[in-house]
Design a protein that fits this description.
Strand order of the largest sheet: 4-3-5-12-6
Number of helices: 10
CATH topology of the largest domain: D-Maltodextrin-Binding Protein, domain 2
Number of strands: 12
């Protein structure tokens, strides 16, 4: 069975409103004969005369009277779907956005993001969920609206990305740490006791690989699952943490930060989203808020 011609809904709506083939034809900019053919198709599709002759005019059948209000609502809904989206009213926007980020990103940039979003849209709620892996399924499935992180080879090529900032690793220790006086050389760095940051509970990472190229090895005294935990441990001990500089700016307040005495490549932190959200005005506004929050 062939699917019904949905264009007939508009024709039926106008015919039932006008009660006249001639007036309906003028309203839809059709000829009377074309409108008569459309009415014939409607009668065939519905199995009902719809409009019948009564004197010099036409009157609706009981089926037509039963359909009139339903057809009007359907046509209005279709017009609303096909109409360009209304201008976003941030003051009235009530929506929850879920952001998947590392703990360091949320703690360092979250307050500025909340302040920026609340100033524009006080009824918007931001839900921060921790990023424990690089799986992009939550973005595809729609359970996450926006994600931040490093775009690696494992990232899905279908995702949209926008660079936020470039970052580099630095060392951090408590202010009164024995190594805080004077330059931290490669030998002094390697001789200290360290905190390894590993979300996967590994016993070494990129820092150790970089040290190995210089024939050095560091002593790992603790392993933390995130940068904020590593900084908290370093703040209260004689351990050294190696963390991203911009990612942890506010978390390192009151601590001694120093450049690494060996080379590690810089990296770019980006935001990622699914392409179905490209045209969503509220989502575009959210992306702008994130850009503003990271400066």
């Amino acid at each position: 069975m062939a699917p019904p011609d949905l264009n007939l809904l508009t024709t039926l709506d106008v015919l039932l409103a006008e009660g006249s083939v001639a007036r309906a034809a003028r309203r839809l900019h059709l000829s009377p004969s074309a409108m008569s053919r459309a009415l014939a198709r409607l009668r065939e599709t519905t199995g009902d005369p719809l409009l019948v002759r009564a004197g010099r005019g036409l009157v609706p059948t009981p089926r037509a009277l039963a359909l009139r209000d339903r057809v009007r609502v359907l046509v209005q809904d279709v017009e609303a779907v096909l109409r360009p989206a209304a201008q976003l009213d941030l003051a009235q926007l009530a929506r929850t956005f879920t952001l998947r980020t590392s703990d360091g990103f949320a703690e360092n940039f979250g307050p500025a993001l909340l302040a920026r979003a609340s100033a524009d849209a006080p009824s918007v709620r931001l839900r921060f969920v921790q990023k424990t892996d690089k799986d992009s399924a939550p973005l595809r499935e729609g359970t996450v609206d926006l994600e931040t992180g490093i775009v690696g080879d494992a990232a899905s090529p279908e995702l949209r990305t926008r660079a936020l900032f470039q970052d580099r690793f630095v060392g951090v220790m408590r202010v009164a740490h024995p190594l805080s006086q004077g330059k931290v050389t490669l030998a002094r760095y390697a001789s200290a006791r360290h905190i390894l940051v590993s979300r996967r509970n590994l016993d070494k990472g990129p820092v150790d690989d970089a040290l190995a190229t210089h024939g050095r090895e560091r002593a790992i005294a603790a392993i933390a699952g995130g940068f904020s935990t590593a900084i908290a441990l370093a703040r209260g001990s004689d351990l050294i943490a190696t963390v991203p500089e911009r990612h942890t700016g506010s978390l390192r307040a009151g601590m001694h930060t120093f450049p690494l005495p060996f080379t590690m490549p810089a990296f770019t932190v980006s935001m990622l989203w699914h392409p179905r959200m490209d045209g969503d005005a509220a989502h575009r506004w959210l992306r702008g808020c994130v850009l503003d929050a990271v400066g």
